[in-house]
Design a protein that fits this description.
histidine kinase; binds adenosine-5'-diphosphate; 5-stranded antiparallel sheet; alpha+beta; 53% helix; 5-stranded mixed sheet; Heat Shock Protein 90; phosphoprotein; rod-shaped; His_kinase_dom; 454 residues
């Protein structure tokens, strides 16, 4: 077959229907065409049934019906049937019935014009069917020409046979369905068992989690109680210590007072030592008391409009005496934010603490205090070019009594309570404190406070 042939339908046979008996003939013939073209038995029956159904309706309309069979290779190899009646159906007899018949074939269309009615249908050949070559089509044509139609009784016998095989197939399908149902039931049982097992495991896990939470709650209550006890203890001890230590300092001062002193120089030196130790002890006791108060939540901020310029001026003045080294520039810059709603005493205490630390640990370079606005916050930074703190200790320095091992303050001493206290105060003021620092380069402590209180 050349390509032009491939685009055309090839007439295989033609016949004319006049009387009802012809319906049997066309049915037989249709099956014969389907068989000759290579369709399987079920498809032969489908096509034959569709043809005979349409034929029945068209013969009922009256007059002759022309039936033509084609081998079609327009898109896919198929058998195409065209049935033409000279009578117009008026959409009444044929169309409503053909929807169901149409399912037996691949395409079906009804052309219901003024000059008559044409029904076209086609059914594809299966993939394994012999190709529709020119020789093959001649062979089919000759076979059809030689075909002798049987009697209606023959056709009935054939139909019976087809009915039996269809019934067999239905039975086989029913058996398949029953088997599938049984399998499905089995699977369902499996799924249900798995579901039960999973929900039991989930319940078990939930019970465990609930118990764990109960234990956690209990532990956190114990922790809170222990922490409160510690705070109470610190507050009481430091309070009780303050009076005797202050007395020791006073007495020491009296003893070494040159006008009334009956001590020789060595005794004076020793009393001076006692006095200086007692002063350190008093500083520690005071720090402890402050921290205990802050931890006990007994410190309420006294909110007011803080004049930052004035506060910075005061810090500059009071800390200048500590910045004794000519190698260190002590710089308190003008604050970029002039006012802030905060607690003046607490904020000054925090900044003083950070500046004192910076001066204590900076041998050369600078110690600088700044304040600027960042979004809805005010950021205070205390930056120094001092000893610095290793990264792994950045959190530990906020623990009570922790001091970086080997770090010696250049002047004064320390208790290790300054930073934890400062961080608490910043928390009370609704802000946060962070540090960035590198050994040998310096440290920057940043205090971030909200510009407006909620
Ligand atoms: P201290 O009374 O010892 O200063 P802090 O709680 O204020 O206690 O500080 C804890 C430790 O953190 C200090 O002992 C010091 O080792 C380290 N530290 C704090 N500030 C600085 C700083 N600016 N530079 C270097 N080390 C610092």
């Amino acid at each position: 077959m050349n390509s032009a042939d491939a685009q055309r339908d090839h007439l295989l046979s033609r016949m004319r229907l006049r009387i009802e008996q012809d319906i049997f003939v066309v049915r037989q013939f249709g099956r014969e065409v389907a068989r000759a073209a290579g369709m399987e038995s079920q498809d032969q029956t489908r096509l034959a049934t569709a043809i005979s159904e349409v034929a029945r309706r068209m013969v009922a309309l009256g007059r002759d019906v022309e039936v033509a069979f084609f081998a079609s290779a327009v898109q896919h190899p198929a058998v195409r049937v065209e049935m033409v009646s000279p009578i117009t159906d008026g959409q009444e007899h044929l169309v409503p019935h053909l929807a169901q018949v149409g399912r037996l074939v691949d395409t079906m269309e009804v052309d219901d014009g003024d000059t008559g009615t044409t029904v076209r249908m086609s059914r594809r050949l299966p993939p394994g069917a012999p190709p529709l070559t020119r020789d093959r089509m001649t062979e089919i044509r000759e076979g059809l020409a030689a075909h002798v139609p049987g009697t209606p009784l023959d056709e009935l016998a054939v139909q019976n046979q087809q009915l039996i095989s269809a019934l067999d197939e239905v039975r086989a399908q029913r058996d398949d369905l029953a088997r599938l149902n049984a399998e499905l039931e089995e699977t369902n049982r499996g799924v249900m068992a798995l579901y039960h097992q999973l929900s039991e495991e989930l319940e078990e896990t939930n019970r465990g989690v609930v118990a764990l939470y109960a234990e956690l709650d209990e532990k956190s209550v114990q922790l809170r109680t222990a922490s409160e006890a510690k705070t109470r203890f610190l507050a009481n001890v430091s309070h009780e210590l303050r009076a005797p230590v202050t007395a020791i300092i006073g007495l020491g001062r009296l003893l070494v007072d040159t006008s009334s002193s009956a001590l020789d120089p060595e005794q004076s030196r020793q009393v001076e030592l006692i006095r200086s130790s007692a002063t350190d002890l008093l500083a520690l006791v005071n720090d402890l008391l402050d921290l205990a108060k802050a931890e006990a939540g007994r410190m309420e901020p006294n909110w007011s409009d803080v004049d930052l310029r004035a506060m910075f001026g005061q810090l500059r003045g009071t800390l200048r005496p500590l910045a004794t080294r000519p190698e260190v520039d002590f710089l308190v810059e003008e604050p970029a934010v002039p006012h802030l709603l905060s607690d003046e005493v607490m904020l000054a205490q925090v900044l003083r603490n950070l500046l004192t630390n910076a001066l204590k640990f900076t041998a050369t370079g600078s110690v600088r205090l700044t304040a600027q606005r960042v979004d809805d916050d005010v950021e205070f930074t205390v930056a120094d070019t001092g000893a610095g703190i290793p990264a792994e200790l950045h959190e530990r320095i906020f623990e009570e009594f922790y001091q970086v091992p080997g770090a010696k303050p250049l002047n004064g001493t320390g208790t290790g309570l300054g930073l934890p206290y400062a961080r608490r105060l910043v928390g009370i003021l609704g802000g946060a404190m962070r540090v960035s620092s590198e050994p040998g380069i310096g440290s920057t402590f940043t205090v971030c406070l909200p510009l407006r209180q909620p």
